[in-house]
Amino acid sequence: MLLFYVGTDLFACDAEEVMEVVPNVKLKHIAGLSTFVAGVLNFGGSSVPIIDFCQLLAKRKCLDCMHTRIILFKKDPETQSPIPAMGIIAEKVIQIEEVNVEHFMTEPRTVAAFPYFKGIISSGNRSIQLISLPHLYEAMKETAQI
């Protein structure tokens, strides 16, 4: 699992879904899109939509600090396309850690409201919220019309 933060909330996504993690670079702003769409990234000549995960969840822009990164991913982990489907800006993208997915617990109301939310696990003094990047992509296609 790739671990990252939104403020003090810890999130994880399956590292197999991640294509690449890149520095937080200047994006091309596209007028008229949802506030949580930060812009598009030129990736090898292709435009890749980037979601500000902090704006989506906490209604504020991600902090522009040393550990803020753009996580690029495919809409289907099995796809061999060299172009990512979408990316998210996240704070404190910190590490890859082995976490057993079977230990994550789901809350049906949360899953219904946020289809990309796969569960939560408490470990020691921290809670990790698991998200599905392909499900986030599908939800953003409908919501943000990307």
Q: What this model shows, in words?
A:
This protein is α+β, with helices and mostly antiparallel strands. It has one domain: CheA-289, Domain 4 (OB fold (Dihydrolipoamide Acetyltransferase, E2P)). It has 3 helices and 9 strands. The protein has helices spanning 53-58, 108-113, 133-143, and strands at residues 2-6, 9-13, 18-23, 37-43, 46-52, 69-73, 86-96, 117-123, 126-131. Strands 1, 2, 3, 4, 5, 6, 7, 8 and 9 form a 9-stranded mixed β-sheet that branches. It is globular and about 40 Å long. It starts with a strand and ends with a helix. The mean pLDDT is 80.
Q: Which descriptors apply to this entry?
A:
146 residues, alpha+beta, OB fold (Dihydrolipoamide Acetyltransferase, E2P), 9 strands
Strand percentage: 35-45%
Q: Which structural class matches the secondary elements?
A: alpha+beta
Helix and strand pattern: EEEEEHEEHEEH
Oligomerization status of the protein chains: single chain
Shape: globular
Ranges with pLDDT <50 over ≥5 residues? none
Arithmetic mean pLDDT: 80
Q: Helical segment tally? A: 3
- What is the domain tally? 1
Please tell me how large the radius of gyration is.
Answer: 15 Å
SSE topology sketch:
Elements: E1 2-6, E2 9-13, E3 18-23, E4 37-43, E5 46-52, H1 53-58, E6 69-73, E7 86-96, H2 108-113, E8 117-123, E9 126-131, H3 133-143
Parallel strand pairs: 2-9, 5-7
Antiparallel strand pairs: 1-2, 1-7, 3-6, 4-5, 6-7, 8-9
What's a quick, concise take on this entry?
This protein has 146 residues and is α+β, with helices and mostly antiparallel strands.
